[in-house]
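Box 4.2: Ligand-aware structure prediction
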Amino acid sequence: MVGKYPVITLCGSTRFKSSFYEAQKRLTLQGNIVISVGLFGHAGDEEVWEGMDEDTVTETKTMLDDMHKRKIDMADGIYVINVGGYIGSSTRSEIAYAAAHSKTIDYLEQPAAQRCPVCGRYYFTEPHSYEICPVCGWEDDPSQKRYPDMEGGANAESLNEARRKYEAKYGTE
Ligand SMILES: [Zn+2]
């Protein structure tokens, strides 16, 4: 049997080792080729940092981040392991990278109230976070979400205006 299997790269903090394994298994059984991280530097593989001087640790972490972007290049989409909504800074940059390269973006957890109200392709890490969406640049301002025509909050333009601009540029999800 030769099939065409979508390729999905897992993204997220390596502290969520068991969730990575669970997602890898589930997505594989669903017919995807799954690319994962090479090591769990925050959960069980700490020995890789032992005996490394600070510069080598920094270089190695930079290499691993860069490798993960290449793994995203190889994939049709990413699957974000956002346990408890947590998304760290390198995962945020991977989401931005995936969006910029027209990859699909899926999430383990999809809390409806934390979905970006402009692009719908990001879940803020907590409600009322004032976090900036790495996909579309909208800042999570709860007042502007409640009053979608309100300008001059955390975002200069209103939510409705930002939505109109996003839809005009990328179409609706
Ligand atoms: Zn967004």
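In the box above, the bound molecule is zinc ion. Residues 116, 118-119, 121-122, 133, 135-136, 138 surround zinc ion (CB under 6 Å).
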